[in-house]
Specification:
322 residues, alpha/beta, Arc Repressor Mutant, subunit A, D-Maltodextrin-Binding Protein, domain 2, 3 domains, 5-stranded mixed beta sheet, 14 strands, disordered N terminus, disordered C terminus
Length: 322
């Protein structure tokens, strides 16, 4: 009885012998065979694989010995496939595709790679930085860019992959998820309170204040507070939250902070209950198209889990532009 093995007719005994020898085959042998078949010469395969010509020759000779037949007819023009080689070409190509699929799957299994950009307020940025080491430990190939600018980025123009905001957008194909709610209250340093004890029955204008500058006059706390300070002026106006915190810790006056943020500073004391009118929420937003990226999906899930497990220490951004 004649059987066909990779295009070669052989007897039962020959087929049995071939199967036994085939057990010793590996992808590296097939890779070199395919390189020679594709390049049309041993020299071309050697250049493509970064190996020497003699090495290619030895590996092909070993493969031919294993298979029991010649794979190439060599000539001055190069190396042409024999019938046995032609029969092996398609299986070798399938092995190459399977190998590439294996590499891609393995690479994705080790975690997303590349850069993901987050836009958030400076308090949130500080909170994220404190926990990024955990993210990097699980996904060492991931790279994060943090933007704490006071201007809201445009997600539809690709200015960030993920944004954390306290105002929901009116338009855009966005996915939105509420992260957490937060309260605002008045804080001051122990040093300032020793000199000027706070009395909630007194007008707020009686005290020194550190607030944001006029560019942030649209902030809800500014709209709530500034009419109560008239006709006096704040002692200090700043643009950045960290400048306000520095001034408050230094004892220059009172300031409005998210409760969870002010509680982190031992030098500060909360002097009023949370102000109901100033309660706000923080949302995570991303373009639906961006969530097709594994790294953006990962970050979305990581942020959600981070807030879920560390909500008590969550540094909410203070902007609420509703």
């Amino acid at each position: 009885m004649k059987l066909c093995v990779y295009g070669k007719l052989c007897t039962d005994a020959e087929a049995t012998s071939f199967v036994a020898r085939e057990k010793h085959l590996n992808w590296d042998d097939a890779r070199i065979f395919l390189a020679v078949a594709t390049a049309g010469s041993y020299a071309g395969a050697a250049r493509g694989l970064g190996l020497t010509h003699p090495t290619i020759g030895r590996r092909i000779q070993h493969l031919e010995s294993t298979l029991g037949g010649r794979l190439f007819d060599k000539s001055g023009q190069g190396a042409a496939l024999t019938p046995l080689g032609e029969g092996l070409l398609e299986p070798a190509q399938a092995m190459e595709q399977a190998s590439e699929g294996f590499r891609i799957t393995a690479r994705e299994a080790t975690g997303p790679k590349g850069v993901v950009r987050i836009s958030c307020g400076s308090p949130m940025l500080s909170f994220l930085v404190e926990h990024l080491s955990d993210l990097y430990a699980s996904y060492p190939e991931l790279r994060v860019e943090l933007d704490d600018s006071t201007d809201y980025v445009n997600l539809s123009r690709g200015e960030a992959d993920v944004a954390i905001r306290s105002k929901l957008p009116e338009t855009g194909a966005l996915r939105v998820k509420k992260l957490i709610g937060a309260d605002m209250a008045i804080f001051a340093s122990h040093e300032y309170l020793m000199a000027y004890p706070f009395d909630p029955s007194e007008p707020l204008a009686r005290y020194d204040w550190i607030v944001h500058d006029e560019r942030m006059s649209h902030y809800p706390y500014m709209r709530w507070l500034m009419p109560k300070l008239a006709p006096t002026s704040p002692r200090l106006r700043v643009m950045r939250r960290y400048n306000q915190l520095e001034a408050m810790v230094s004892g220059l006056g009172l300031g409005m902070l998210p409760v969870v943020e002010g509680a982190r500073f031992k030098a500060l004391k909360q002097v009023t209950p949370a102000i109901p009118e100033l309660r706000f929420s923080q949302y995570i937003l991303a373009q639906e198209a961006n969530l097709r990226s594994s790294r953006v999906r990962l970050l979305w899930g990581w942020l959600s889990d981070l807030v879920k497990h560390h909500g008590s220490a969550f540094e909410c951004a203070y902007k609420n532009q509703k």
